[in-house]
Amino acid sequence: MIELDRLTKRYGTTVAVDQLTCTVQPGVVTGFLGPNGAGKSTTMRMMLGLDRPTAGDVRIDGEHYDRLRDPLNHIGALLEAKAVHPGRTAYNHLTVLAQSNGIPQKRVPEVLDLVGLGSVAKKRPKGFSLGMGQRLGIASALLGDPKILMFDEPVNGLDPEGIHWIRNLMKYLASEGKTVFVSSHLMSEMALTAEHLIVIGRGRLLADTSMREFIKENSRSYVRLRTPEPERMRDVLATAGLTPVATEDGALEVDSVESDRLGELAAEHGLVLHELSPQQASLEEAFMQLTAEAVQYHAHGTGKGA
Amino acid sequence: MAHTTQVIRSEWTKATTVRATLWTLAIAFLVTVVFGVLISLLLNNTFEDLPERERLTFDPVLTSFAGMSLGQLAMIAFGILLVASEYSTGMIRASLAAVPQRGLFMTAKLLVGTLLVLVVGMVTSFVTFFLGQAVLGDLSVSIGETNVLRAVIGGGLYMTLIAVFAMGITWVLRSALLAFSILVPLFFLVTPILASIEATRDVGYWFPDQAGTAIMSVVDTGERPYGPWGGLLIMVLWTVAALVAGYVTLKKRDA
């Protein structure tokens, strides 16, 4: 479990992380979502004790990171940038980390095989592709068989096969009862892997909810219709207590109503319909809207009306 | 303490599994020995041509160590690379995630680095002494004569301290490029020039390398305001200061 308590990081006057309070629960994949520059990486670095919080607190299993003895046995992390000496072989790189935390040497070939780098164990990462670099990073995260795993933008720059592999790995780790905390700026990516969501924008907490709740609350379903007599249609809808929104291409969008009901209404009043289609706003849109509001909030000082 | 030995082992593996480390140490040895022998050879052949004052104060031990002014640059390079490679590669994040106790991390790296340069420094010093004396022939001294053993051990200590000083400075600067561009000109040009010009000599003598070389001279020219051990102590103080500054930087800065 990871607990953040009013975690704050300021660089001069810039606030990167702003009073972030949340808990990352074990046994599920928690998505850490936010646009680029929202403070995700900074938050993760503070969790690992790499960056010092300006204020607030973060605890891993109830302890500060630098109080953990052999931390790689508690938490394994893949950070965004490569954290590997290009001249030290993959095998030696992992050996260095294993030795520092008293992890048995036999784990090194084990994790290398697990991430599919067994054949390049004695090669220097200098010549590794981005995907191989990511796999080596994941191998070092898994080295101590920790209960908590943290991945910062793990699918960045990966080929489809690599992305598929990472998704399955994360699901597998969560099914083993591990805490999996993964950051991304892509909602679509999260929708496939995460069960729980923590959304931040400009360093502030925007949502801390289950994926199911998030979808329910944020995915707007509506019906789109086109008619040659939009004015009369509006009146009919108004009488029925519905408020349509006109779109740029002359169609109408009606929220919270079944398409059946709209078809019946049109028939009752003898209105011609050229189109009647139920729509679902994508999660990506919901996410964009959520974070756009955060941006607007900071830019104009008003939280409403977006 | 089990934990401390784990981290020291890990730092040992780190230092010995990268080529640059071993290359810089090998170069420090070779350059010091080869130039020491060559200059000893040169002086042996031209000794009669030297002015009388220089012949009287001729120091056969210091002469055989003449290659050290170049060889120390490789030692400095070792110290810089050992620390700076953490930062230039991003390895520092993996290292500190594995060992978040920054004081322990730095101590372990320092111990491993110091041990390596001490061994190589001592071997270099003794080899260059014996080869240099062999070449100097009639002008040579034996290791048993007054102050000679002190000077030869001192040569090893000097090389060790200069590398450790470089480590301390690099913990502050966190960049190989910065550290090289400050330390190499400083020790290769600035301090030797300061110490050889009459007007700036009194200042030049207080720099770590100039003070440290006092331990290697057997003949006291009486020019310096401190003796051989006093000089070494000045160098030790510089090194301690650099390490303290490095520790404070590591402790305070985000990785």
TrEMBL record, chain A:
The lineage of its organism: Bacteria, Bacillati, Actinomycetota, Actinomycetes, Kitasatosporales. InterPro entries: AAA+_ATPase (IPR003593), ABC_transporter-like_ATP-bd (IPR003439), P-loop_NTPase (IPR027417). Transmembrane segments: none annotated. GO terms for molecular function: ATP binding; ATP hydrolysis activity. Keywords: ATP-binding, Nucleotide-binding, Transport. Belongs to the ABC transporter superfamily. This is ATP-binding cassette domain-containing protein. Pfam families: ABC_tran (PF00005). It comes from Streptomyces chumphonensis.
From TrEMBL, chain B:
Keywords: Membrane, Transmembrane, Transmembrane helix. The keyword Cell wall biogenesis/degradation does not apply. The keyword Nucleotide-binding does not apply. Signal peptide: none annotated. This is ABC transporter permease. The chain crosses the membrane at residues 20-43, 63-84, 110-136, 148-169, 176-197, 229-250. It comes from Streptomyces chumphonensis.
